[in-house]
Amino acid sequence: MDVSGKVAIVTGAGAGIGAALARALVGAGASVVLADLGEAVAGIAAELAERAVSVVGDVTDSEVIRGLVARAEAEFGPVDLYFANAGIFGARGLDGGDEQWSAAMEVNVMAHVRAAQILIPGWVERGSGYFVATASAAGLLTQIGSAPYAVTKHAAVGFAEWLNITYGDKGIRVSCICPMGVDTDLLRAGNEDFTEAAANEEAIRAVVSAGEVLTPEQVASDVLAGVAHERFLILPHAQVLEMYRHKSADYDRWLSGMRRYQATLHQ
């Protein structure tokens, strides 16, 4: 897909990958509605001038998503692309309560589901539309230090796969972004996102030591290239594919290797 002249919605657009995606989309000729919980998103939209507007809201709420779609249609026209990019890390895992697990599921998975429920029927009628889910390499591999993140990112990949299979022959394109470390606020998340500081440190060490930490701009560039070629898996870190192949080739050996890797992080 050529994004020039298209209308896009980007969630989690107040910083990080979302802000970089919005800038890259506008730079490529698209018009964008930026959404985020924080007021910072308005500054990003103002920077992008007349081809961008912002909405502050919780994109786990179906009514907020409908409001994004309505705003896009009123300002620019029918929505062509939806970037489900908002995400949170979550708690350590077994130490986390139901509220923390539910929050990770709501943001990392159900926000995608609700957006698809609202957009896909209209896209099927039009015969075109593009859903881009930001998951993580954790969705293909795992995340040491945060069970909710690992589990919900697996679910995000699974939902994107299902969308691709179910609607791919009806004109709907689906991509799933699975990077490793990206220099964002999420990578530098404060301890308030975790039940223990040690869990935060372990998760961050696992990400940083696994490979290069990319800038959001590098990831956004790779995402637009992936969208242009309509690739399902968009892997800004090329080594993720090789890791995934090792995992699928010998699951037990991979699990054993991950336990050894985890032990080195503890040291």
TrEMBL record:
The keyword Electron transport does not apply. Keywords: Oxidoreductase. Its EC number is 1.-.-.-. Pfam families: adh_short. InterPro entries: NAD(P)-bd_dom_sf, SDR_fam. One of its GO terms (molecular function) is oxidoreductase activity. The keyword Cell division does not apply. It is an enzyme of class 1 (oxidoreductase). Coiled coil: none annotated. Belongs to the short-chain dehydrogenases/reductases (SDR) family. This is SDR family oxidoreductase. The lineage of its organism: Bacteria, Bacillati, Actinomycetota, Actinomycetes, Mycobacteriales.
